[in-house]
Write a structure and sequence with these properties.
Number of helices: 12
Order of helices and strands: EEEHEHEHEEEHEHEHEHHHHHEHE
Low-confidence stretches: 1-7, 30-38, 48-122
GO molecular function: epoxide hydrolase activity
CATH architecture of the largest domain: 3-Layer(aba) Sandwich
CATH class of the largest domain: Alpha Beta
Strand content: 15-25%
Domain AB hydrolase-1: 184-296
Helix content: 25-40%
Protein name: DhmA
Shape: globular
InterPro entries: AB_hydrolase_1 (IPR000073), AB_hydrolase_fold (IPR029058), Haloalkane_dehalogenase (IPR051340)
CATH topology of the largest domain: Rossmann fold
Number of strands: 13
Structural class: alpha/beta
Keywords: Hydrolase
Strand order of the largest sheet: 6-7-9-8-10-11-12-13
Radius of gyration: 23 Å
CATH superfamily of the largest domain: Alpha/Beta hydrolase fold, catalytic domain
Number of domains: 2
Length: 420
């Protein structure tokens, strides 16, 4: 790596394939605050696989390119290099009237599945992710605070593209509904680090008797992923407040809530001050005991200094590995691509995952203790059911049965299922 002038770094990465093709990549970084080697490697792979869209928030152009508009650079696609020694440049260039300000541009939404770290296919047809998105809609809820300052990439300190900036006065939540709006409402809430897609097979079943709604939390799936410190910091307290805003938007009458895993304490915190709003509460493998008050290594690694920033940008580790490590079952490739999609489309997903993990690691114990107290309190009037898949590798069953007996809550045991 050479530092040729103040605040500019550039270096070469060589790639040699099994068929003897050699490619030399030149990377130029303007004003980096940190050098994330893993991100650079990912960008190198993306540059080599020219049929994939450019890596999410960077401009990729050949050495022969002349000055071009940001929109041209962001939309351009590349073919794999056919000649040895050809140089590609990755350049975070200026945009707008301020020539001294560096910008990152969000990549356009890719056609098909895009680039997969786990054998995904290139496709010109609709992907499972596209089909899932068509089933939902965006619901605006929870006011956006802040000073209006432009959000910046936490790794390089560059201003994010327009797609990563907050627009309007409220955040957008991706919601999928099924069933008549005249039926009793049931809101299905995914766990950490999942998506509403995990309820895709439950929605049509519930639609016969209920108005079922599944949503992506802020920072997950297709919902907004604001940069930390620019309107949303992904604290558990913020999730409680934002949940209230969303439920008020979705349901005017009493509602039943179903929640998975590590977001259960957030829901109980909300419910503790809004019991009049709830008909039923169903907790799927919630963290109930002192043993549960800590993230498993597969998730806590996203909170680590440096490693957390690296791994949260890895679509395979952030989606496939994080989700499949909780139980003995494998995920179909077409389903895995839906969970990977946010991490392939924008670096904001990884930044959000990193922030959520740190806050979850910091506050989970306090929230689990509060949930434990609330559910055992004599003033708790909400009918509560705890469903437990006994093949959960993250949360031990020890103490769960005793807790349900002491708190007089119904327990449903599912012996051959992992984290529900």
């Amino acid at each position: 790596m050479d530092k040729t002038k103040q605040n500019m770094f550039h270096f070469y990465v060589g790639i040699k394939t099994t068929n003897g093709l050699s490619v030399k990549l030149l990377f130029i970084l303007h004003s980096p605050t940190k050098i994330n080697l893993h991100v650079i490697i990912v960008m190198a792979i993306q540059a080599f696989h020219g049929s994939a869209c450019c890596f999410h928030s960077h401009l990729l152009h050949s050495s022969s390119s002349t000055t071009a508009s940001p929109s041209f650079l962001a939309s351009r696609r590349f073919q794999p290099c056919s000649s040895k020694g050809k140089i590609l440049k990755l350049n975070c260039s200026s945009s707008g009237n301020n020539g001294d300000q560096d910008y990152l541009l969000d990549a356009p939404v890719s056609v098909g599945d895009g680039f997969s770290f786990s054998g995904g296919k290139y496709s010109d047809g609709p992907s499972p992710s596209d089909e899932w998105f068509k089933q939902g809609k965006m619901v605006k809820a929870y006011s956006i605070p802040g000073t209006g300052e432009k959000a910046k990439d936490p790794i390089f300190g560059l201003v994010m593209g327009s797609g990563s900036q907050a627009t309007g006065d409220r955040f957008r939540w991706f919601c999928v509904e099924s069933g008549s709006a005249d039926n009793p409402p049931v809101i299905l809430i995914h766990g950490f680090p999942s998506q509403a897609y995990s309820y895709r097979k439950v929605l049509p079943v519930l639609s016969k008797d209920y108005h079922a709604i599944a949503f992506d939390w802020l920072g997950f799936g297709f919902s907004d992923k604001p940069q930390p410190k620019y309107g949303f910091d992904y604290t558990l307290d913020e999730y409680v407040s934002s949940l209230k805003s969303l439920i008020d938007e979705l349901a005017v009458t009493k509602v039943s809530l179903v929640v998975q895993g590590y977001f259960s304490p957030v829901i109980v915190k909300y419910a503790s001050t809004h019991q009049e709003k709830l008909s039923n509460l169903i907790l799927l493998n919630p963290p109930l005991t002192a043993q549960h008050a800590k993230l498993p290594p597969t998730l806590s690694i996203f909170s680590n200094f440096l490693l957390g920033e690296i791994f949260s940008q890895d679509p395979l580790r952030a989606s496939d590995k994080a989700l499949t490590s909780c139980g003995p079952y494998k995920m179909k490739e077409e389903d895995a691509m839906v969970y990977r999609r946010p991490y392939l489309t924008s670096g904001s997903s990884g930044f959000a995952l990193n922030a959520i993990s740190r806050n979850m690691k910091k506050d989970l114990k306090r929230y689990v203790e509060d949930m434990h107290s609330v559910l055992k309190d004599k003033n708790w009037k909400v009918q509560t059911t705890i469903c437990w898949g006994q093949r959960d590798r993250w949360l031990s069953y020890d103490g769960v049965e005793d807790f349900c007996k002491d708190s007089n809550h119904k327990l449903i045991e599912v012996p051959m299922v992992n984290m529900l």
